[in-house]
Amino acid sequence: MVRVTPHFFNAYRTTFDYPRKNLLQWFPGHMGKGLKQMNKNLKSVDCIVEVHDARIPLSGRNKHFKDILGGIKPHILILNKIDLADLTHEKEILSALQKEGTNNVLFTNCKSNNFSRLKKLVPMATDLILNSERYHRSDNKEYSIMITGVPNVGKSSIINALRHTYLRRNKAAPVGALAGVTRSVTSKIKVSEVPLIYVLDTPGILEPTVSDMDAALKLALCSSMQDHLVGCEIIADYLLFWLNKHNNFSYVGYMGVKEPVDSITELLVSCAVNYNKTIKLKSVESGGYTIRPNTEFAAYHFIKGFRTGLFGKVILDKDLINF
Question: Considering the entire predicted model, what is its pTM?
Answer without folding.
Answer: 0.86
